[in-house]
Amino acid sequence: MNVIVVKNAQEGGKEGYQIFRQVKDRGGKVFGLATGSTPLTTYQELCNSDIDFSDCTSVNLDEYVGLGPNNDQSYAYFMKQNLFNQKPFAESYIPNGLAQDIAEEVAHYDQIIADHPVDLQILGIGRNGHIGFNEPGTPFDSTTHEVHLTPSTIEANSRFFDNPDEVPRYALSMGMASIMKAKHILLEAYGDAKADAIAKTIEGPVTEDVPASILQKHADATLIIDEAAASKLHGQY
After folding, report:
1. Which residue of 15, 16, 136, 196 pairs with 42 in a disulfide if CB–CB is 3.0 to 4.6 A?
2. Is 108 a catalytic residue?
3. What is the 3-state secondary structure (H, E, C) of the chain?
4. Catalytic option among 15, 105, 119, 135
C-alpha cells in the first residue's frame, strides 16, 4: 500500500484530487464514490477544478434502506449537493434505498458493477475498520448485500440526524469483493478517532474482523491519512 501522510483533511483533499486527475488522465472512465465527511475535501477540490466528468460514470458504494433521493439524509442527496450538481457524470448509479424487492435490487446493482468496472474507488473508514457498510465479520468474498448496521455505526451517523431514532438501521452496500475489483483504491482517513482502525488496516493481520485490512492485498491501493490518524502506526511512512 502507498501511504501518504498529510497535516490535515484540507491537504488530504488536494492529494485526493491529484489521484482522481491522474486516473482520469490515464483514461479512467468509471469512478466509485463514497459519502460522509471524509471525502468532502477531495470533492471540494474536484468541484473547484476544471476536471470534466461528463464522459464518465460514477458508481456509489452504498445507500440507506428506506431513504429516497429527495431525503436530505440520503446518500443520493449528499452526492448531488457535494459533487454532482457541480460536476455531473454521464451516468451515476446509487443503490435504490426505496426498492420494494431488496434481493432484486442487490442483483441489479451487482450487474451495474459488472457492466462498469471501476477504475478508481474512493473509501472512508469507520472506527471499527468498516469500508462501505461492510461491518466487521463481513466475508471478503461478499458482493452487494443488505447490511444490518452495528450500534457503533448508527451512533457515528446519528450526528447527521435531528433525532438518533431517525437513523436507518439497514443499508445496501457494495461488498468486499466488489470493492477489491476496482483497479485503483483510494482510502482517506482523518482524525485520531480513526488511528486505531488505520493501524490495524496497515500493520495488522488481514482479517474479516477489520474489513479494511484486505486492502493490504490490493495491487494498487493508496491511503491518505493525516498525522492524527497515523499516530498509532509503528512504521515510517
Report:
1. 16
2. no
3. CEEEEECCHHHHHHHHHHHHHHHHHCCCCEEEECCCCCCHHHHHHHHCCCCCCCCCEEEECEEECCCCCCCCCCHHHHHHHHHHCCCCCCEEECCCCCCCCHHHHHHHHHHHHHHCCCCEEEECCCCCCCECCECCCCCCCCCCEEEECCHHHHHHHHHHCCCHHHCCCEEEECCHHHHHCCCEEEEEECCHHHHHHHHHHHHCCCCCCCHHHHHHHCCCEEEEEECCCCCCCCCCC
4. 135
